Amino acid sequence: MSTRLSDYNYDLPRELIAQRPLERREASRMMVLRRDQQTIEHRQFVDLKAFVGPGDVLVLNDARVLPARRFSDDGSIEFLFLEHLGQGRWKCLVRPGRKMRPGATAKIDNIILRVEKITPDGERIVVLDEDVDLYAGGSMPLPPYIERASDEDDTVRYQTVFAQASGALAAPTAGLHFTPEILKEVPHTFVTLNVGTGTFFPVRSENVAEHNMQAERFSISAEAANKINNARRIVAVGTTTVRTLESAKRVSGKILAQEGLTNIFIYPPYHFQVVDVLLTNFHLPRSTLLLLVSAFASREFLLRAYEEAIRKRYRFYSYGDCMLIL
To answer: Could you give all domains of the chain from N- to C-terminal order, each with its CATH number?
Structure first.
């Protein structure tokens, strides 16, 4: 098992990065990996229920994405508002950062915003002349590899149909394929992990063990814990669900109902304690998400599957196709 970041790279043709969702959520393709046999099948997402057996439970992240993206009134600065700190103070990311040094100002809805300081992670603490809800006029914070502005379609499609708990800055994208009808066909429960920016921060060290994840808040209800503890197999929908389940406190092997913070970073040769099957989208090279899935499927098998996906012209990333790892 390699811990060298350069061993988790691959070349992706730019045209395979999905820029928009398919017309129907459930129309995605689904690559099926069998770890025991090291085989690859090409199926459709609507075939998912064929792989869910008696006693299995799907666990999904019901986090709701905040409309956290705003632009300055002149359109020159993009803001991603991460957290309301109270009394007109916010934590945010900005682009381009060179324009927003301490003391710099901009206007949003004609309200003056001033940079108070820059955090060690490059985030800005800003102060507004008025304490207003900036999410009220915001748009969906699409990932930077979607090279267009978000629109009304994204307000619906960059949100799962089961989203409940507001607080995420990115969608749990493996859940985007589900419709209410498909969800009714499979036994399931929900946990919450409010996806923050830490999930997407690049790994800068060649030794991946030196990377630190930012903490994200999660919760598991008593009902969800009961269903998980009585399941034959746990089918985790998405890497955020994996991180929630693998972080959870357990007593005698049983998950407890709980709320907390997790900064768990899963990479090979991590030994999974809870998750048996993983449904996930395709992920960026050299990312913490690719490392997590490599720990589950093995780096060699996963990268072989990615090569196959590129040959078969699968759609990649948030609005792309998915992979079921058995």
So the answer is: 5-65+143-325 (3.40.1780.10), 69-137 (2.40.10.240)
